[in-house]
């Protein structure tokens, strides 16, 4: 049997994305672990025989997330994100690094999606319907519901903007979603006989989850993006003390000390209020889901409190659906929202109305949420063009914008934008950036490491410099190894798995027969033969092992010659040896056999005359492999010579 | 280079050279390199460097700086490589000692920055761009670059390691090609020095006892034979074949996966079609030495070849058939029954694999089924193709999986236990079974196929993904069975299957899983599209609750299901199979359906069902569906009115499709090869034309189409523009813009359109007269608009000028913005 098929590590995401990969044990151990070569986790034994190693590679930038983990021979892909900064192939991870290992469906045991943001799930339909992965995809129920909406939104923008033909279609998104298995929080899901996964609450966005991946006694926790402080509509991330071998955590805000979210919210409301008060219009470009709902709640509450009458519109047709899901998954939101749900559903907005294109030309103040979020196409861009020339108006960008979008341009301070046909759009309206993204900061990350108590930590989804600071902090405080490999780099982690071994009843009885009862607090050595049959390990007596494996027994004997100065006859020398040994080895059965030889257990001693020197006798000592210790001892004893015989 | 870009470059280079101004966005640097690559492909790099001295200054400056960021350093290495790809520019940069500084031992190689993978990657990519001419080869040799590349093959970054291997292949090919002019290949041992060094290194690696090194050598060779098809590759293989063959003597065989890739790359290379060089022998030996799982991909690769020795094909097919042969034998009641490999002794390695563990067994079966599924439709598949035993094996595997098999051997018992409930194998076997529907099979086996598919569709244990595949396989078998029956009616057997199928379909339409309801509806749509006219099918369908249930699913809570229900019900209705039109409960069923669809179009909160409705309406209009034909004008007017303000641009685009079908019906078909083609239109006669235009005005088609022309979503505007071009060319002879242009009607219309173009679409167009429409059609620069719309809507933002400006503008933006993400 060959184990070569797994020797090469796994590779994904060759460009500028974070990637982690776990791979298989190094060659030496792999040969013991694997019965079967060839790509894929299918060829592995249920139970590893030796301490396998986990190999990890990870990325150090914020972009598409796509992480590959090999744990005890199982291959799991964590997230399948895209990079919005590219318009060509580079936006998706280069899966050819995985397809080198054979068919994707054979190689990967499952795909897990942590949450619905496109940098975590945007490449999924491409991966499953165009690259050809046909296996299961796991995500939480809210993610399953919301993910296709965002994918559809993204597809429409890509096709709308560029008329891209080679892009996944609506049908592909649907077919991809049909491969999804939705999971509940804290539910242990058996992917197959050996691999199990469990989701934990991650905050961040509705339905975001951290996942524990477990094979036998080895486990990895992947956090995805998370938030350790509750916000206006979501709770804080939580995980139990699961002590994984490895915790893979995001580190977006590894060192950033951010002003409180409350401050940013207050600032946002103040700016919106001031603008509408002076008769201006406020444009908030958003993606259909996520931050949009958070900001809607914020404005709705403020409008209610201040009794404002200025209209607020939401331009996308998806609002209703989005709000429907927020209502449906109310248990995923924070306690406050759940409590108020009894009186009133937070997501049934009184002040926020559906937007009609004609409203943009209405005089007077208004607030409009419009998609897409980076002002790169469609409705939000159209409204922006109309309102940009008036200094009374304001655009608030609540999220990151990639280069090549109008959003990016105005955020970087450009006020004269070149339009088609050599037209220049002068941006006189106010431009504000408000970050509302919910990631754990350094304190939060430390808190999570403390909660989970991992054996080692791996940082992804962050910038190298910031990660270095956090790495040192984690290593100092928790005394665990912390890794921050660059994109595509491989790290190997040793693990100490506990391997269950069955003991045969026969062997236990044999031990009992020797009259030594087991004591709970006193470990005892038990000798036997370890055999592996039907992927199970058992300790049995050597006789039973031979019988079960159908093998014949061979005796292996060690021999040694000891020269003694003794002028007496051989029989007398043998008798002297017998009495000497008998006096020393009181616990052993020392016998003098009729043929003149002496035995101690399996050790046989015979005296013979020296062929050249009659004053010297040669003791021929031989012993079995099992009595090797005693045999060596006797030999050294005899080499010292015999005591003087009484005269 | 564009003068504007040339103007911006010095400032940008200054920013890049300033370590205090971090370049935060990697994508910008990538795009910048893309741009430089495009520019240097079109013009002289040397000229560009001379005209823009800031570029050389940047490279020199980066060399001197100790604390330059790894991103900028990597960028500079790649940039220098792009310039140096042209030999005269290479010489120019050499004069300034820039290239040795960047790529030689004194450069980044010896700096702390070398520990950053991005820098190593930049170094490799720079060299890869640079290595285009003989001078580059000397440069590489003089500066010891080849040895560095050898060491980078084992780099800790997979991407660096992979790029290093690619670079080696590139240099080997360059070295051989520079020599090959006039030579057909290396004669005797006479290889060019550089190539000799690389090949020597490959030989050494193949001798190595460590698997990663062997893997590296095999990967380099795989790429070489995949990319280079010059005669020298034959000499290379002749030299290395013995070493590759030696790998087979090791236990275990190192890097088996890479070995298979290499052999497949070699056998596919056209150079080897005429000669052998011991190749086939090595391949045959490899097939027999590898484990069943490892040998599969090699076997399938061999069977896909056009030319290959017959014995090898037989051996390869044997490898693929063995696992299924074991499965068949495990079920055989008595030994000696026909199997897949009659006469061949059971392969013990195969049985070991199937017995060793569940995962090994499942893996082997899934791979084998996938390989055979891949082969089945190919013209070069093995002949005779053992259709019947393969079908038997697929059915048997499915029976093992659902627990209905009665095994007759210990192997059978083992498989029963291992495969029970295994979704992976079920999926693979159903896919394979579906593919086998293309062949001719004995009736008895076909009966078994339908039986097992029905069992899967009925079983409460079938997962949604398995059910989807079972529906797909069932559809393929049903359609193929009708094809083989050859007559207009379905065979008796198919009718029996249908009778059993519809109750199952009913159950699945009521499944709590949306995935299952949706798959069932998709199945229903396909089946009625193909069999809507078959009396037996109609009878069985109408005798069931399926049409009624499909109708009910128009109210499904899941948008995807509603959309599929719209398509299915629309299809049934086209075939006169909608929910019992004669039943007393649905006296107005047909009319009800139209209003139901209009209701969905105006009210559904999701785009999918609305899009589906538009597709159905378009099909109805095209096919002359009874309700539509009854009053087509009214139908079109209503639909356009309902959907014209839809928020989903795809619904609006579909509306234009419907408008085009309507136009074509009253004006004549557009060119069938290109529906929107404007060349050589056949103009309509004037009398008819006025009538047509009046009709179009009545249904308010122009209001919708003109509004769409200024739609903020580009595809809608594009489609509308194409439609108007078609219409204009049809009406060309009647249009007299100079006469109609002055009419007050057309003036107000033009004014409205101007406002629409400016984005103010609130004002309606009002009642139109054909003359005014003709005048407007003649006055709009539709060709100009079409050209503009053909560009991506962000083409301005994606221009190099825009990129340079963005990079310059971003410098002062707070860092927090970039750290933020979605």
Characterization of this structure:
- Chain A: Its main location: cytoplasm.
- Chain A: It is found in: Cytoplasm; Nucleus.
- The complex is a heterodimer of chains A (647) and B (822).
- Chain A is an alpha/beta fold and 647 residues long.
- In chain A, 30% of the residues lie in helices and 21% in strands.
- Chain A has 19 helices and 30 strands.
- In chain A, a hairpin with a 2-residue loop joins β24 and β25.
- In chain A, α5 packs across α7 and α6 packs antiparallel against α7.
- The two termini of chain A are 68 Å apart.
- With 822 residues, chain B is mostly helical.
- Chain B has 4 domains: 105 residues; 127 residues, no CATH class; 188 residues, Alpha Horseshoe (Leucine-rich Repeat Variant), CATH 1.25.10; 161 residues.
- Chain B is built from 44 helices and no strands.
- The C terminus of chain B is likely disordered.
- Chains A and B meet through α6, α7, α10, α12 and α13 of A and α2, α11, α13, α15 and α17 of B.
